[in-house]
Amino acid sequence: MDPVAKVILWIYGTAAAIVIVLLIYLIRRRIEIKKKENFEDRDN
Asked: How far apart are CA 10 and CA 14, in angstroms?
């Protein structure tokens, strides 16, 4: 395989892995925020 193609595939794979990890982090963070929300304790 062409070395340039290997570099492009490596960059693409790394970017895909980062995006997947970021999505998992954001989903878990949103679930934690949702658990802490309590609409009954509002002042008004």
From this structure: 6
